[in-house]
Amino acid sequence: MSKTLIIIRHGKAEEGFDKKDIDRRLSSRGIQQAHHNGSTLRQRQVHPGLLLHSSASRTTGTAAIIAEYMQGENMRVISTPNLYLCPSSKILDELVAHAKDTDHTVIIVGHNSGLSDFYNQILSGSLYYNLSTCEMAVISLNIGSWTDLYDKYDAQLLSIEKPNK
Length: 165
Description:
The protein is of the alpha/beta class. It has helices at residues 28-43, 57-69, 88-98, 114-123, and strands at residues 3-9, 50-54, 76-80, 105-110, 136-142, 154-161.
């Protein structure tokens, strides 16, 4: 059995000199980046069962824009504070806690460095790859259940895309 995991780092955020990091919203560039990813997913006819994102303003904004492109889909959108600046082990725990085995495709929108660590953990690569803002990785997983990610599994990177700057 196969599942698809789409990992997206949030879009470019506004400068945050006068506010808390968690409250930083998307910049105009970040909004454009999120629209690009949403449009790409729609063109590829992606049908996610779950869109899981951090409750920070910039990830919520990125997820909301992507969700607009998924209208008509039977997709659950879950915001959790547990994904805010968390380590990769917590991302895996949140994925397993919220994804149903009937969710053949899951999108996660989160933050670095944990999100890049998670990407590298899933693909077990020898070279570390750092996701840039709103970069999107599509990964095929040879698993029957999301809990299989705690064990041995095969993963293949199908695509990685950086939105135009």
